[in-house]
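Handoff note, outgoing to incoming analyst
You'll be picking up this chain. Sequence as last confirmed:
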Amino acid sequence: MIEHSGGNRGFFDSLFRPKRRRSQKSAVVALAVASASLLLAACGSSSTASSTSSSSASGAGTTAQSAAAKGPIKIGMITSLTGPYTPLGTNDKLGAEQEVNAINSAGGIGGRKIDLIVEDDATNPTQAVVDFKTLQSDGVVAMVGPVFSSACMAIISDVEAAKIPAIDTCADDSQVTPVRQYVFMTPPTTSIVGQQLLAYMKYKGLTKMAVAYDTTAFGEAGWNEMKLLASDYASVSSTVARFRLPPLRLPLFSRA
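Most recent structure output, in case you need it:
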């Protein structure tokens, strides 16, 4: 079990202290930074123990590791800056940059600044895999995103294999079911959303619902969960309307 030292307590408290105008997306990258800090603390402790017991022949290697430890902390981000999920991805990027700038302006983490490396998955699972490999090569110690559920699922095995903590902003339950060691999600699960929707319909005396869902990982998971939960709300029956998400950008988000 990894515990942060007393010297880092002020930093961790600052991450979760209420701030004016802090968006939910900004808080997401704060969590990723916290994960990176824990990982670095663990690696630092391991490195210290190793250097104590190592022979003088390994001195050059230890010196190189110490030099690297003084560099920036690299946090990766995969998000959709092009494609249908551009509005979501763009806001995620802005929120992440806002939080990183705030932390760096306050002195960084233990005197080390954060280097946020952003990759565009183009709302495409195949591109997300390429992006993750790029971030891995860049040496990131934690990652935020993607926003597109199909992209999240495309990289999940690589994330686990690389042992890089990933805080996802997509909403497919499959990324945390079963529980995984290095993958976390910020949105509510589809089961929670489904329960609340069906409970509201029952409360209002509504007996029929039409379900329109897309063929993405999140859309399929949401529909399957609704079907499973519907039996608990006997007064609610469903009609299915299925549509496929086209490759071009959809007018899903208001720009008011």
